[in-house]
Amino acid sequence: MTDRSAVDTIRGYFYQFDYSILQVLQLVDLDDSISVECIEDVDIHTATEDTAVQCKYYAGTEYNHSVIKPAVMFMLTHFKKIRDDGRQLIKYSLRGHYNSGQHKLTLPINVAFLKQHFLTYSEKKVVRCHH
Q: pTM of the predicted model, to two decimals?
């Protein structure tokens, strides 16, 4: 029988909530703001830029690139759409908590690493590229 406990889900909400509150407390200007659950989990708006932040909480999971691959692909797709529409560009950030495996992601990453580990996938035994 599978464990249907919601403990990790609730911890994930707290992780996002705590991150949101921290961002509010760190706002520099009175006109700066955050939005919750808009483009991403937390969007930070300042006079000069917007940053969309995705929060991932996987306390029972080992980090693998495939775990965050869908979020990275969504961010890239959104970036391309707003660029093509001529709108103000957005910065993107991905915050995560994992049980282990964080050493697999060495920052900063380069374009080749991004393409290989986050933008290439298999669909019906065919390799596809999301770039």
A: 0.83
